[in-house]
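Lab meeting, item 3. Inverse folding demo.
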């Protein structure tokens, strides 16, 4: 792994590192400000219409600015794809656990859930963000989302970079837990060089030899906040304490630390019944915890503003 050198800044990262660039990143009408506090909250997975409406109401009331909801899930193993579950209702059917969907079926089912996400966002005035996994889903997804998420596994996916560079919606680039800031800036430069400037970074933890408990897979890199600010001062940095800690009990502390350290916002998983979340049940916050967190975040923001 290499440090970011002066030569890099001049030759390889000349656009993303511009000091005086006025970057405008929007999700629908919402401006994601470098010095703002944009909280994106919602479930790992859109499980049903009722679930996403319930969550949208709760996170809006608590003060979130955007609704997140996964539809295409990059699962470690092929089984248990949430899209193989029924399109409505809240009970997961075990019989469907090992069903592998055809791509056609996957897209159709994803579209139904993206429809729920968009409707819920519209009802509560929350722009929506969802992860894109397949480059050829860009047109379909563009009908529903206000911002695209590139998951950490796809940080370098050139097919996604190519289609997203042409998209009219903004992009959130998640850093892979094993990748340097230099590489993350390189991905951003790929966008910049293609004329795409409305993106934000998302830090979701780095892999280290020892984490703090057996469930944690990563440790949140708080230092990435001032470092990215130094190298790419115009790009908002969103911190994802949910996927970084993988542990509900740590989410509040890391969120407060991130905002105190100058992050532009947070991505937080919220679920009405966190232990029963179809994906990532250990890290989602319940409604009460999320509300409590939002109150504390606003206080921190006032102090450091
Ligand atoms: C997610 O946001 O639900 C997700 C899967 O993110 P990551 O790519 O960080 O694991
Ligand atoms: Mn998740």
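The presenter then showed the designed sequence:
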């Amino acid at each position: 792994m290499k440090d970011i050198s002066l030569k890099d800044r001049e030759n390889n990262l000349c656009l993303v590192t511009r000091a005086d660039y006025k970057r405008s990143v929007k999700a629908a009408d919402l401006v994601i400000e470098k010095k703002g506090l944009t909280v994106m909250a919602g479930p790992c997975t859109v499980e049903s219409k009722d679930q996403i409406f319930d969550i949208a109401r709760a996170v809006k009331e608590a003060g979130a600015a955007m609704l997140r909801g996964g539809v295409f899930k990059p699962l470690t193993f092929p089984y248990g794809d949430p899209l193989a579950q029924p399109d409505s209702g809240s009970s997961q059917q075990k019989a469907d656990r090992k069903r592998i969907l055809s791509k056609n079926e996957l897209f159709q089912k994803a579209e139904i859930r993206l429809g729920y996400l968009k409707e819920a966002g519209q009802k509560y005035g929350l722009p929506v963000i969802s992860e894109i996994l397949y480059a050829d889903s860009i047109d379909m997804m563009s009908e529903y989302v206000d911002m695209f998420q590139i998951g950490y596994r796809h940080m370098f996916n050139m097919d996604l970079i190519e289609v997203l560079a042409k998209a009219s919606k903004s992009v959130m680039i998640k850093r892979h837990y094993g990748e340097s800031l230099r590489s993350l800036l390189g991905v951003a430069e790929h966008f910049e060089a293609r004329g795409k400037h409305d993106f934000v970074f998302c830090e979701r933890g780095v892999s280290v030899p020892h984490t703090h408990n057996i469930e944690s897979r990563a440790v949140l890199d708080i230092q990435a906040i001032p470092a990215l600010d130094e190298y790419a001062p115009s790009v908002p940095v969103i911190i994802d304490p949910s996927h970084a800690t993988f542990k509900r009990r740590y989410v509040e502390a890391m969120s407060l630390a991130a905002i105190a350290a100058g992050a532009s916002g947070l991505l937080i998983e919220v679920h009405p019944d966190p232990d029963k979340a179809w994906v990532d049940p250990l890290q989602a916050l319940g409604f009460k915890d999320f509300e409590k967190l939002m109150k504390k975040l606003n206080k921190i923001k006032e102090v450091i503003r």
